[in-house]
Design goal:
The chain is of the alpha+beta class and 366 residues long. A hairpin with a 5-residue loop joins strand 4 and strand 5. The radius of gyration is 21 Å and the shape is globular. The termini are far apart. Helix 4 runs parallel beside helix 11. The strands form three sheets. The chain has a five-stranded antiparallel β-sheet with strand order 1-2-3-5-4, covered by helices on one side. It has a two-stranded antiparallel ribbon with strand order 6-9. The protein has a two-stranded antiparallel sheet with strand order 7-8. The protein binds 2-acetamido-2-deoxy-1-O-phosphono-alpha-D-glucopyranose and magnesium ion (MG). 2-acetamido-2-deoxy-1-O-phosphono-alpha-D-glucopyranose binds next to loops. 2-acetamido-2-deoxy-1-O-phosphono-alpha-D-glucopyranose (GN1) binds next to loops.
């Protein structure tokens, strides 16, 4: 393996790590590059070594500041509650030789290391049980961070700001860099027609009626570590943890997990909103996040379920019009196909509004 020598050199920058037996790539993340560092001594934990994509996460000090605050706070909470096995329930990052939780190599790449959580696995499959456990897991994660006093920064500024995403689409259409604006004009018009309604959260926030809270902002099912019984151990992939509306976590999980088809399904007729997954996830989420959510936040959960496919349709379409500069594509119309699939999901979620309201009312009676 050609990378072995430089990687062992990086590993040496983290003094806690003992003799290593093997360093091998793990995970399928598109943003960061991840390795498992297997230690030679069976008594010593393994570690996860990760190269941080500093093109996406420009301010690595801020990124690591957020992650340190969050993991410290959760650890303290778990200890206060007398929970067992705390080291498997929250990530632990190692200090590098200069005392920071990351180091830079000679080429300017940033690296961090965390303890590998023993006997854990991830899943990509979603059924009712995983959806319920994910609802509890992500709701619990937010609940534990609801009283975090240190301020966190936005690791990707305005990440889930719908108003900004709309203006980016408008600008892309005006610039028409790739000569695609005319082709997509009907879809642009349809999305723009709902823009005002879908920017409701930002308006409520300005009026002081809707808070930002510490959210995970990448609530994919594979960002939870499960134990051998399938119970949620730990929430991982903390790079996008930042202040946002709780809609980010609730909405993006449903967007990815409650869709009947992949986010780039070419036939929109095959894309629909899975009500069963919605119900299981919502029940779990309200059982845990219900402790801190305001009545308005709860009332707006159906809005959140609609918002995320809508926002993603806008983002994919913007990138298509812009000549595919952000998302990786496998064929020329990939972003357009993705935008159409997300738009179909958005409409399917909108049709489920009465069902969602009714269900939320039924489980939220405390
Ligand atoms: C990106 O790389 P991935 O799949 O984890 C994007 C998300 C989108 C998603 C859509 C930093 O996430 O916001 O929802 O693509 N992440 C970033 O597939 O832009
Ligand atoms: Mg991820």
């Amino acid at each position: 393996m050609t990378m072995t020598y430089p990687l062992t050199e990086i590993v040496r920058r983290f003094p806690q790590i003992g003799a290593t037996a093997e360093i091998r790539p793990i995970g399928a993340g598109l943003i960061n590059q991840t390795y498992r560092v297997c230690t030679a001594s069976p008594a010593e934990d393994d570690y996860v070594l990760q190269r941080i994509n500093h093109h996406v996460f420009v301010d690595v000090d801020l990124l690591q500041h957020n992650i340190e605050c969050v993991t410290r706070h959760i650890r303290r909470k778990l200890e206060e509650r007398g929970e067992g096995d705390v080291d498997r329930r929250v990530m632990r990052f190692l200090a590098a030789d200069d005392g920071k939780t990351y180091c830079r190599d000679r080429e300017g790449n940033c690296w961090r290391a965390s303890v590998y959580i023993r006997d854990s696995h991830t899943t990509d499959a979603v059924d009712g049980t995983t959806a319920y456990l994910a609802g509890r897991g992500f709701g619990q994660f937010e609940a534990m961070l609801a009283d975090l006093s240190e301020p966190l920064g936005e690791t990707i500024p305005h990440f889930h700001d719908m108003e900004l995403r709309i203006s980016q689409l408008r600008e892309a259409v005006e610039a028409d860099r790739a000569g695609r604006a005319e082709e997509v004009a009907p879809l642009v018009a349809e999305l723009m027609g709902d823009a005002d309604e879908m920017c409701r959260a930002e308006r409520l926030h300005r009026e002081g009626r809707l808070p930002k809270r510490i959210c995970h902002c990448d609530t994919k099912v594979n960002n939870m570590l499960l134990d051998s019984q399938g119970q949620v151990l730990c929430i991982i992939d903390l790079d996008t943890v930042m202040p946002s509306f709780v809609f980010s976590d609730y909405g993006d999980f449903l967007r990815t997990a409650a869709s009947s088809a992949a986010e780039d399904e070419p036939d929109p007729d095959r894309v629909s909103f899975r009500h069963d997954i919605f119900r299981h996830f919502t029940r779990g989420y309200l059982e845990t996040a219900g402790s801190f959510l305001t009545p308005l936040e709860v009332e707006m959960l159906p809005f959140a379920a609609r918002l995320f496919p809508y926002m993603q349709a806008v983002r994919f379409l913007t990138d298509y019009v812009d000549g595919d500069r952000y998302y990786r594509i496998s064929y020329p119309t990939h972003n357009l196909v993705r935008a159409r699939a997300q738009h179909k999901l958005y409409r399917s979620v909108a049709q489920a509004e009465p069902m969602m309201k009714e269900y939320i009312r039924s489980v939220n009676i405390k």
